[in-house]
Amino acid sequence: MEYRQLGATDIRVSRLCFGALTISPLQRNLPAGEGAQVIQRAMDLGVNFIDTSQFYRVYPPIALALKQYAKKDEVVIASKSYAYDTAGMKAALEEALRELDRDHIDIFLLHEQESSLTIRGHWEAVEYLLKAKERGLVRAIGISTHRVAGVRAAALVPELDVVSPLINYTGIGIIDGTRDDMVEAIKFAAACGKGIYGMKPFGGGHLMDTIETAMEFLLNLQEIDSIAVGMKSIPEVEMNVRLINQEVVPEELKEATKTMGRTLHIDDWCIGCGACVARCSSQALTLENGKAVVDPSRCVFCGYCGAHCPEFAIKVI
Ligand code: SF4
Ligand code: SF4
To answer: Which of 292, 205, 283, 211 is nearest to 249 (CA)?
Structure first.
């Protein structure tokens, strides 16, 4: 496993980052013990970087995995929150510290930022994180984003250290531009000293038939320090470690992971309230005849819509 300095921070991360969304209640909803085993396998294979969020509700398996890991102090945790003010961000950081049983969180991000306007709208939360950084409670702060404008905006904010953009070789999931627009924005942000860790290299599951091409594309982007991949099983961990190490992936390992593909399921009892449509930043959902309908070509299987459904009628399975 190769390790990189994350931009201008003093944080050293493995090139493969464990994306914890996939084991969370928003997606596969693994029991804590099972989720912890998947994380432990990744750590045993050299992954020292875990990406999570307050929104994912997945701190328990991460805490369990860390508890049982001898080198837990070397593991880098990135979490994020939608909080926009002092009280909200304070609560988010305290929740992460408490539930992960850590005295600091390495990286704390503003979740899903769209542009300079949204960063400005969250400035109270940024100021809280800056104070938390001075107190040693966080080591670096930044944003995650599915938008080119989000990356470009963060690049110009000196207080932000890290950017986690959506990037893959087809550009699926990028809301406001093409793959090449995003690559240019990432290069700009890296030139401004930001640490970059990309997310959704396989387009949320759309690119599973071309995983080697998908991973190679990101590995060739030297500005990307680490690549967050959602993993929900030990075979997926083993496959992704091989891909990141540019080793051959045996066919049987590929087969074992193919059976674990994702789909967005909408139940018959959907009442057509539209809450999921409003929440989907990929614009993958519409209402037709009083029911939610998904455009599978736009869905990146993030599961965020499910958390907003009052009827529990939509979920990634
Ligand atoms: S439809 Fe749901 S799972 Fe798909 S991209 Fe939109 S929010 Fe994410
Ligand atoms: S939020 Fe739930 S009930 Fe409302 S439209 Fe979406 S799936 Fe249907």
So the answer is: 211
Taking the C-alpha atoms of residue 28 and residue 9, their distance in angstroms, rounded to an integer, is 33
311 touches ligand 2 (CB under 6 Å): yes
The radius of gyration computed from the CA coordinates of the chain, to the nearest angstrom, equals 18
By most ligand atoms within 8 Å of CB, the mutation choice from 300, 312, 316 for ligand 1 is 300
Residue 314 CB less than 6 A away from ligand 2 = yes
Q: Is 294 in the pocket of ligand 1 (CB under 6 A)?
A: yes
Rounded average pLDDT per 10-residue block, the chain, 317 residues: 97 98 90 96 97 95 95 95 97 98 97 95 98 98 97 98 96 92 98 97 86 95 97 94 94 78 85 94 92 91 88 86
**CA dihedral (276, 28, 165, 104) positive or negative:** positive
Q: Tell me if 265 sits within 8 A of 317, measured CB to CB.
A: yes
Q: What is the pLDDT of residues 211-226, one digit of tens each?
A: 999 999 999 999 999 9
* 202-257: pLDDT as tens digits: 988 888 889 999 999 999 999 999 999 999 999 999 999 999 999 999 988 888 88
Which residues, other chains included, contact 225 with Cβ-Cβ below 8 Å and sequence gap of 6+? 4, 5, 6, 7, 13, 15, 195, 196, 197
Task: Please state the pTM of the whole predicted model.
Answer: 0.91
- Alpha carbon nearest to ligand 1 atom 6, residue: 280
Q: What is d(CA 226, CA 67) in angstroms, rounded to the nearest whole number?
A: 24
CB atoms within 10 A of CB 104: 17
Q: Is the CB of 292 under 6 A from ligand 2?
A: yes
**Cα–Cα distance, 103 to 271 (Å, whole number):** 44
Among the bound ligands, name the one nearest to the CA of residue 273.
Answer: 2
The rounded distance, in Å, linking the Cα atoms of 143 and 154 is 7
The rounded distance, in Å, linking the Cα atoms of 212 and 254 is 11
Domains of the chain: 3-258 (3.20.20.100), 264-316 (3.30.70.20)
Structure-block tokens of residue 120: 């400005």
Residue having the nearest C-alpha atom to atom 4 of ligand 1: 299
